[in-house]
Specification:
- The chain contains 12 helices and 15 strands.
- It is α+β, with helices and mostly antiparallel strands.
- Helix 1 packs across helix 4 and helix 4 packs across helix 7.
- The longest helix has 19 residues.
Amino acid sequence: MVSSPHAAVAHAPRGSCVRRGSHLLFALLASVICVYPAAAAETKPPGFGIPFPDLSFEQALSKEDRDYLGVSPNKPFTFQNIRGDLILVELLSVYCVNCLRQAPIVNGLYSSIEKDKAFKGRVKIFGIAAGNNLREVDRFKKELNLAYPILSDARFAAHTAVGSPRTPFSIWVRKERGGAGVVVSTHLGVMDSPEAAAKEARAVLQYDIALIKRQKGAVYKGDGLVPPLPEEKLLAKAKQGMEASGGHVLQIRKLSLKDGDWVYAGKVAFGNVQKDLFSKLASRRAVCDICHDTFFIYTFDTEGKVVEIVPLQLTKNDNLDWTEEDIQKLRARTLGRSMLSPFSFDPSVDSISGATITSALIFEALDKGKEIYLKLKNEKYIR
């Protein structure tokens, strides 16, 4: 039996799941997606000098965290409100194995900064937990005894704003007058050590930010997601979704929307009644740096109700595909729900065992289904 979270993380082989431990967090790690090591290699290094987005956070912080970040109590705050000359923003997921490896390193860096007179007050650290709610974040911090603030990003808003990076993803941001930030360094994957991170902090603090040429684009730029099936098979899967309720597709076509997005539109016969149904390919980059990307097709009607989920690439721990039982559980939690209402993810009831991150990504995609529906409505495909 592993006696501490840090020990469990240290001995977990790359590309595997942590399976046991004496703490509650590691019971949760039974729901980590297992991984393949090659995924991180596809990432393109982000550009130096990209302005950091002014992320907004609404959660209540402890007095200790508020004082550390320098933000006011009882109201939302933004990145620009955080005080300091250099901010380390740590993108993570509590179910990401490499994020668990990274956590004690960042914690060690935080401790060394707070003891260094040249750093304390000038260099700040905070984490952003992509897809994780407050309960998950609190559990993560307590189990690993982490001292630095970690903010919940349950709906992936901050994660998306910086380019949907794989995690752990570390962003060093220099603050300008007025509070705006510019990216001066990034790191994908686990840092070498607290000492190496501190050395990097000293280096980037020496930059004259007035001389940094500003770049355009997202902080993180990964390769485009390529569906696991060719177009003709995607069309067949879309048709499968439309006929899942017992109808027969009379006509199906691919609609190109004005903003470059697209969706399949079908005319489906249910006996003597014809209905318009729509199928959308959902592609989501994996959250963790060594995880599988997620692909599925969801079908919905003219009222915005989800009528079918067709998996294309859904994986869980040990690099296994979802079982039919897993897919049926997902359908039980999603079919019949309206995309016009929030598709909130509750890991205690919505998570598929061994695939918490994938489950969260699916709900995130369905939550954004309202945008697709409104595009179809605005372009008169839905009346």
